[in-house]
Design brief:
single chain; 472 residues; mainly alpha; Sodium/glucose cotransporter; 78% helix; globular
């Protein structure tokens, strides 16, 4: 057992629990729980945005993709995902903040109606479940490797830890722990990056050793390659914009200007620091040419970092997973509690309790995904696409257009989901090389969502302006 590392992780867990307990004292009502009372200053809004985005997929996934595919394999993360934050700040943060919302379900209710509110909230909430389960698995792996905890108990312990941090303080707890953790993550990446560059001889040597085809963000020649390239950028940028996890932090900022600046700053820092795992992945081809790609960053840390720096790196990696998980857990919990359960008078009169109850319920719902194994977690990529094909069109149209009715929102979401799902089924059912493989399902689904919206706008009669219940 690595005693220094065990001690470091133990100190980290105790510290996070302490921060969570302290944050819980700031929660007095639903607005405190969901959007921190709309009081986040720039440094906290930026910190929680960056921590929510800068997860294990960025650090581990980008390094592995860069090693295998070069720069083209990292388009989705960090480049497109980081761009999504900048786009959110430039075009969406101010008008959304000025609406004084608590959830994205509120947005769809105000712009379309209660049926669209319920449908969109359900679609989003379900999409978060496998993503949360994946974080439990990652935390269970850390507990198993360094504490000898059996897998099942590791998953349960991870779920309990994340549930505690999220439920006790809501957005305040998530924000404070996120900001502390992301600073640790960025420091550890700089240390690892500097150490690795000194071993390989600098950036110039890494770039010179990278094949020319692995140095560009441009697509390869051919229609199919260009369409896949376009779908990847669209999925990373526009698929993330309607997400509750992103917009909840916009709503929590203390002003529209703060929300704008936090998004843009987080996006710039995200792409900048995201280059570190990309560079490390490329460098690993030089220093560890015989190793397998999975877990390559951990292998590099073991090979080149001293024991104290290894402790910092592993604690930082754990912090990444925890911050991603708490953010992901709060998002569907908010949608279920505020946009579904509060329709009932029983829950509407106990809003703070309902939100905490929803957080516990979502945690229980994610456990079957975690115990279901990797086959179920393959749904992760599918869940990410849902934001693009089902929600982006009604989201953008609702903000910048004039929806005529609830039907427009329902038709847009439904058409996008049905065509996208049908396209994916056709690709899986037909022999390889079929015509459906030429166009990515994300593009056909998004086109269908737009067509559904336009058709409903053309043929449906205007509804009365939806009534919005007051915030707590």
């Amino acid at each position: 057992m690595n005693t220094p590392l065990v001690v470091s992780l133990s100190v980290y867990f105790v510290a996070m629990i302490g921060v969570g307990v302290w944050a819980g004292r700031r929660v007095e009502n639903e607005a405190d729980y969901l959007v921190a009372g709309r009081r986040l200053p720039l440094w906290l809004a930026w910190g929680t945005l960056l921590a929510t985005w800068f997860g294990a997929a960025t650090v581990m996934g980008a390094s592995e993709a860069a090693r295998d595919e070069g720069v083209p394999g990292t388009i989705l993360d960090p480049f497109a995902s980081g761009t999504a934050l900048i786009v959110a700040g430039l075009f969406f943060a101010r008008p959304l903040w000025e609406m004084q919302l608590l959830t994205m379900g509120d947005f769809f209710r105000e712009k379309y109606g209660r049926r669209t509110e319920l449908f969109s909230s359900t679609v989003q909430a379900i999409g978060y479940l496998p993503w949360i389960a994946a974080q439990y698995l990652a935390l269970a792996a850390v507990a198993g490797q360094y504490f000898g905890v059996p897998f099942a108990w590791g998953v349960i312990g991870a779920a309990a830890f994340v549930l505690f941090l999220t439920m006790i303080g809501g957005m305040w707890s998530v924000t404070l722990t996120d900001t502390a953790q992301i600073l640790l993550v960025l420091i550890s990446l700089v240390v690892l990056g500097g150490t690795m560059l000194s071993h390989v001889g600098g950036v110039d040597r890494v770039w010179a050793a990278t094949p020319p085809g692995h140095r560009t963000l441009l697509p390869q020649a051919g229609t199919a390659a260009v369409l896949i390239w376009a779908a990847t950028w669209a999925n990373g940028i526009f698929g993330n914009l309607p997400g509750q996890d992103l917009m909840q932090r916009v709503f929590a900022s203390r002003s529209a200007v703060t929300a704008q600046r936090a998004c843009v700053l987080a996006g710039v820092v995200y792409v900048t620091f995201g280059l570190l795992p990309v560079g490390l992945g490329l460098a690993s081809r030089i220093v560890l040419p015989e190793e397998e790609s999975p877990g390559i960053l951990l292998k590099m840390a073991d090979a080149f970092l001293s024991t104290p720096l290894q402790c910092v790196f592993v604690v930082a990696l754990t912090a990444i997973i925890v911050s991603t998980c708490t953010s992901a857990l709060l998002s569907p919990s908010a949608l279920i509690a505020h946009n579904m359960l509060e329709r009932s008078p029983v829950f509407a009169s106990r809003r703070l309790f309902t939100n905490r109850l929803s957080t516990a319920a979502v945690t229980l719902c994610t456990l079957p995904f975690a115990f279901g194994g990797q086959s179920i977690l393959d749904l992760l990529d599918v869940a990410i696409e849902v934001g693009l094909v089902a929600l982006f069109v009604p989201f953008a149209a609702g903000l910048y257009g004039r929806p005529r009715s609830d039907t427009a929102g329902l038709c847009s979401i439904s058409a996008g989901l049905v065509v996208w799902l049908g396209h994916r089924v056709a690709i899986a059912a037909l022999p390889a090389g079929n015509a459906f493989e030429t166009i990515p399902p994300e593009l056909t689904g998004t086109a269908a969502s737009l067509a559904g919206y336009l058709a409903a706008q053309q043929f449906s009669r205007p509804d009365k302006q939806p009534q919005t219940p007051p915030d707590s």
